[in-house]
Amino acid sequence: MTSLTSAPPAPRPSPDRPPRSRLRFWRSPAGQPRWARPALLGVAGLAALLYTWNITSSGFAPYYSVAARSMSVSWKAFLFTSLDPSAALTLDKIGGFLWPQALAARIFGFHDWALALPQCVMGVISVLVMYRLVRRWQGPAAGLLAAGLLTVTPVAASMFGHALLDGSVTMCLVLAADQYQKAVASARLRSLLLSALWIGLGFQAKMMEAWIVVPALCTGYLVAAPVRLRRRIGQLTLAGAVMLSVSLSWVALMTFTPERDRPYADGSTDNSAAAMVFGYNGFNRLHAGLVDGAAPVSSNGLWGSGGPTRPPSSHTPSTRTPPTTGPSTGPDGTGPDRRGAAPAPTPRPSDGPSQGRSGGGAATAGSQIGQKSPSRTDLWLKLLRSPRLTPQIAWLYPLALISLVMGLVRHRKAPRTHPGRAGHLMWGTWLVTAAAVLSALGNLPHTAYVAVLAPPLVALSAAGTVTLWRSHRAAGQGTARAWVLPAVVVAETAWTVQLAAPHADFAPWLVPLLVAAALVAVVALSTGRARRRVALGGLLAACVAMFAAPTTWSLSVLNERYGGSAVDAYAGPGNDTRISTGTGTVRAADVRVRTSLTDDQSRLLGYVEERDGAAKYPLSTETWEASAPYIYAAGTPVLPLGGLHAEPVTLAEYRHLVATGDLRFALVTGEGTRTSKISAWVAAACAEVDPRAYGANGGGNSKNPKTPKTPRAPAQTLYRCEPSDATSR
To answer: What pTM value is reported for the model?
Structure first.
């Protein structure tokens, strides 16, 4: 007899399902088919393979990798997402996307694979969460197809394999949609707040782009949450407060920290983080001048040809140099390079760009040198016409749009809280909003921008494919419904062939395969309904016709030639995104960054560190590019006098640093036109160091009469500044 105090016997597992064990993670949980979990793990394994295949040769993005290195050696630089370890200057955007990269570099060392590793993990997480999202909505078959389609979306296959900021925001938005889905089904405030939290974290990765999903999630919740309207509005208000609090946390940190205790906000003309985020990186890209204090961008929403430098603040004298103008662009492809530096040679693919001016570069929308500028119509229709963007994202357009329309029509009379209706409403709003914003931005400097379209495209396409198949199987022979699926296959295949045809030399077998698969699918689906095997064969052929092309583009990343780069995400052929170098352009895929010092630079750094007297800044340079070698190699807290758009210190502040002994040496190269007043003062007040003193090759033109002059001056001049020099002139 069983004691009354003893525990009841454990329930025996059902013969139809395996026992639940965390160690047997490959087995599907209750309520899912046996094949669901193993198939999902296979898809996740494919995603991990694609994203990590070229990880050891993923390369560095010249501008962002300098900041990642700085953030990996300085917690202050980490907090403020600074370009330099001394935290004198921020990036021209919030650098939250670099936080995982900097932590990885701190743990594993500064390598290109260490910076790319977090993105690979984020990609796999996005694939797994996409399965869960669509499975809850349309079942495990649709969820598995959505996860697979996200894996073989070309822009994702390249983006998640490199240290690009778009991978972070994509994962955050997918996780936000996942929590929203829980909230809209049960009206749980906790899930809605978690969704808002993920959107806020996405804002730290790519600022206002993360807010693209807000109309979709708000509309879906306001329409479909199973509570009264007043409560829905109240919950959305609380979620909005959380989203804004997290989104604006870095801006608030910069705003309320005294200027002397934080870096200068690049991307602004008045040291304003808000102007940098909402002006230069936000509304001013839609129309110039909407937000004051932001670095200028051109009217097409991309970048300008120049603009004013930092104006005098209320506590510093007016020492700024006049603005410079020119056609060159900044190294991240989001703003003008207004340093006014002398042109540098075009980088060679063999040795990559130097750490000077050419160390940066801007993606110039893939245009060839001398190519005619796109018209306004082309800019607005670039998501449909651009030969650079469409092969990365556009393959599923017809299928996704047909699925959206059919889903909304099918559920038009469904109850307000019907999950099928709510899902189509949310995904459709996300897709339309993102497409409208990307179209309004004019020219897009990076293909990775279009990755925000991937989640709604794959979700709608997967849901539509499964629904069309079920409807086809249930339709009567000869009825109109029986021809819907074959018609969709023909339409989708025709669009796919149009996109693939210009690249026939890349995969000459692809277009014939698509056409043949479509013919087989139409015949099998039209005549083989009564035979399940024939119908399944038709479905398989239909999937080949609709999905083989993006899969081919994505699998091509296994060849490093087609894998994209840390500068631009681009899978497959036709990668012609260009990097500006001042005198010309170079392909983004050919950019190489040297992260070690030359012999002369090593000797110079050793000389400075032996004699800097524990100064706060061992060395100052005129540009951030000149600082890059020393930051890369040793994490040296070099003080860059010029960023992309701003100067972190004035002449008066610079002289104060010298007077207090916080700065002893200055490296002048003649490239910092905007910092010419500081350079001129250094040349007049400080003592030039003979290059032979630190063993550099070449002579010097020292002011010391005892130093012999050589006919050829070195490319850079090192000066030693003593505290007394600050008051000498």
So the answer is: 0.84
